[in-house]
Amino acid sequence: MAQPKNPARNSGGLTRAQRLTKRAEFDSILQDADIQLTRYPVRLVAKANNLEFARLGMTVAKKNVRMAVDRNRVKRLLREWFRANKEHFRSYDVVLSVREYVRPGDPLKAALEKVLQAWDQRVDTSDT
RNA sequence: AGAGACGGCUAAACGAUCGCUGAUGACGCAGAGUCAUCGGAGGAAAGUCCGGGCUCCGUAGGACAAAGUGCCAGGUAACGCCUGGGAAGUGUGAACUUACGGCAAGUGCCACAGAAAAUAAACCGCCGAGUAUUCGGUAAGGGUGAAAAGGUGUGGUAAGAGCACACCGCAAUCGCUGGUAACAGCAUUGGCAAGGUCAACCCCACUUGGAGCAAGACCAAAUAGAGAUCGAAAGACAUGGUCCGUGUCCGAUCUGGGUAGGUCGCAAAUAGUACGCCGAGUCGUGCUCGAGAUGAAUGAUCGUUCUUGGACAGAACCCGGCUUAUCGGCCGUCUCUUCCU
RNA sequence: GCCCCGGUGGCACAGUUGGAUAGCGCGGCCGCCUCCUAAGCGGCAGGUCGAAGGUUCGAGUCCUUCUCGGGGCG
Known about the structure:
Shape: globular
Strand order of the largest sheet: 1-2-4-3
Largest sheet: 4 strands, mixed
Distance between the termini: 40 Å
Helix content: 25-40%
Order of helices and strands: HEEEHEH
CATH architecture: 2-Layer Sandwich
């Protein structure tokens, strides 16, 4: 039997439709952002997307995180964090950037926790 | 027992849940998607230092230039790599290291010091003649320097000197013997040939067309054939630096306008491993494994165990090497020292 | 992924074919000048020549391997 077309139906996954894949999409979000917030070293930029689910894009520059192993690890942790908390970001396109070098591990997780708190406050006030 | 040399292997394991990605199958008109099964980073994936495959370029022909390599032999698709051998050097030794062709082709350079740094020469010395300083002989000794026309001993001499002799070293013979060769040994001859530097220019031998998967091929959307200047049988252009040769003929330059992506290339081949041949390697037989993304996949959480928190580190066309990084653990062969029997 | 440049006092740069104690400008410090400051004048300090190894009597320079920084190719 056919499944609904909404990819957000799948509660746990993070499929290609839920990712930003075009340069133009990144540019439009970064230029016309609705919400920007930074909790060192993570920067979050978001824009409402008129969809029923969230989409994720990440930028981790080689200049900031030099080693490919660390860079992959940072991106995996960002992706996993977004996947676990994506209900918070419903109907938003989100771009996550790592601005400074951070060792993947507890410091990054702590920073992401702060980002989530700040996001919840911002979204609550803007909705009401 | 301690210290060490060489070679090889390994690179935490298992389970549960939630996820990512490719293939196959099923459902689905198709697409999107869902479910099931299977696969899913390394010894260096790294640096991009070499070599090849593959693709395109106007032929890829010649000459010059440029770059690289450099003891000998073998291996290889090829190499600057590997294996074996020679020579030289280091280490008590096992072993290790070596850009190790040629300055008796040419040119250049060798600061300071020193008499003199390359046609050789003579500062202090030594000796003889002469007598207030010169002439001649000499290269033993001193001094300078990184480097100064073999070393030691004996004879010899005015003093000395390969001047003579012995031994060592050196050179020559295209000598003899061994070796495919580099080279080694022996014999004979020569008093000995008057520096170093080629990671200085260079000479000799050999090698190299250029670019690189952002190569390139196909599909498709959009834009639209604009304006100006210059040159025309000489010139311009062509993917290599120059020339010759070759090809094209309206070409070149500038300004302006427009630009959206997708599919293939893309993974099984020159692979690894066991046995046979001294070795690299080749061949034969058998066995093993089989990543393929494109804002870019291996993760998260929990539990158990260990060496108690696991180093260096992440494929992007592929392969063979080199180099560099690396916590440890294990295995094999061998060396030295000390002790015991 | 591929290709190409560069690293010399605090800053921006020289350093020719290897040769003596690596220079110049700005900046810093001290002194002179001035009532004081600036300007000017005189003097001084400050360098692992990105790192390691090699060739050489001798390396900023030549060779090799790393490291850091920058640029180009859609």
